[in-house]
Amino acid sequence: MNSLPSKCIVDTNVPVVANLAKDPMNIVDELVDCVDACIKAVEHVTSGRGKLILDDENDIFDEYRKQLSMSGQPGIGDHFMKWVHDYQYYLLDEDRVSITKRDDSYEEFPNHDDLQEFDISDRKFVAVANAHPEKPPILQATDSKWWGWKDALNDVGIAVIFLCPDYVKKKYQEKMVQDGA
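Structure (tokenized):
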């Protein structure tokens, strides 16, 4: 994994994967390094070494809440959720980005032919990255579909940091074979 950025957007699957550490006996071998990378990313943000970027309408926060525990227990990802809840309003104004819903997407979502099929539920992360003046990277854990969109996102100036690149690439290639691509 590359070094982590000073500012970033954290896809929900990062703290969700970090939560797998609460039951290490159930982590499949191919995810051991990935869980470790996600824990390091969560700790990078919660320690203040990396600044979290959110949207000012709480679309990202609301997604976190649906998949993580606000109590901060029992996992590391749940601790991240509580930290976000407690510290979100201490973020600099420039790091609480305004995005505008438009139908099932956002005005700030980039217009690129290869992003037409981008997951509706993940567009908020891209819209926030695109709307922020520094275009901070998005931390991504295990969603292999993002591997197929990385070049198009790069074309529009949005970087994705894959915390589990070997795993994601392998899963993406397996899906492409299954889909006959």
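The chain is about 40% helix and 10% strand. The chain has one domain: 7-178.
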